[in-house]
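Q: Got a minute? One more chain.
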Amino acid sequence: MKAKKQILTLLLIVLIGAFALLVVGMSGGGDIDFTSGAKDALEAQGYTNIDITGISTKCAPEDAFHYAFTATNPATQMQVSGSVCGGGMKGWHTVY
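A: Always. Here it is, folded:
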């Protein structure tokens, strides 16, 4: 009987902990900046002076993330606007 009570107590503690993590996660206190992945992808392509300007409508529906950006193109050294799309298992790609 004592072992059963200990198991129930442990289960209750685990459930309270899981609930607390859920509440903290949903509170917005731990917001994740997904734009950092988009910026990293653009930097890997040689872009500089990158500014994520908002949400893009040019990406495909299956892309996990859709960001509009302005940046300096590495080939022309001119300021360009475009979209950086993807993320997750698909990877990132740019759309103009």
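A: The mean pLDDT is 81.
Q: Perfect, thanks.
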